[in-house]
Amino acid sequence: MKMKRGKILFALLLGSVLIAVALFLFAGHGRVERETRRFPVMGTVASLDLYDNSRDMLNRAADDAQNEIRRLEAMCNVRDENSELSRLNATAFQKPFRCSDDLWEILLAARKYYELSEGSFDITVKPLMKLWGFYSRRSSVPEQKEIDEAMKLVGLNKVIFDDRNKTVRFTVDGIGLDLGGIAKGYALDKARRKVLRRGVDIGILDLGGNLFCLPEPIPEVGRDHYRVGIRNPLDKDRIMTVVPMLDSVIATSGDYERYVVIDGKHYTHIIDAKTGYPVQNMLSVSVIASKGIDSDALSTSVFLKGAPLAEKICGENPGIQILIVRRDPVERTKILVERFGDIWDRDLKVDSPKQSFAE
Asked: What is the pTM of this model?
């Protein structure tokens, strides 16, 4: 079994979304400065590109954003036994665990999306992630009996939330939470807030493919928005479409971003908590929303539940845009593109190569 991230450095920097905008040095425009940061965090690479007429303000804003993202990484790191999340996982069966305000806010959002996805988006998926080799390598596909045993430890209905005291308690020993499908979006929201409080409102914050375009466009580019390209899930070095964005965030969940290969077969890291198996046939889901936590959790939820959930979400929230790319379950060489919202190119098509890296 071989663990792959499916990312070269370029892809790590931009995740599942490529910045389709020219970034100027502004050498001839003394009033505008640019600050760029790249740093590894949350198992990926963050990219900050900020613009302002004050170098000091830019440095402070970038420092604040970087420190905030690292702080939340330390809180949510499931592999660090000293993180708040790991301490919760280790003790919440014995007694209620009181959460910090940040962790509690993430857990409440996770509960909302658990209900919205009818139990498929489930942060108690940690036992299944471990079983399928996403924490340590394994050489064979889990047997059904192993999956059945792990499933006994999965289900947010086995977690008791005390809204008044901000505590959680497990009703079954061995449950574990993994916030991989929601934490980056939350961290991006918090970083954006830090940047705006410094008075910087031009630029792009990218956290492993969760990409936030700030409220003001780059003036010298001459557009009233940013142009963001979405990667082709069958060819990571190409973009399949470009969308205009401003003061909004896009997140893409793709089967190419994180996966394991067992016995020569590709398995995505997005596991359906209702079946115990990684999702099949779905290639990518992109979601544009006003908040990072919603875009992040929704891209995972729709990856799990498909078009019916996307239609429901967009019907109830006109500002949300969703793009699904998937294989036809019968004719696997046929690629289906489903659009929800009016921002997407109506002529968008994705051709399947004779043999995809995802096979």
From this structure: 0.88
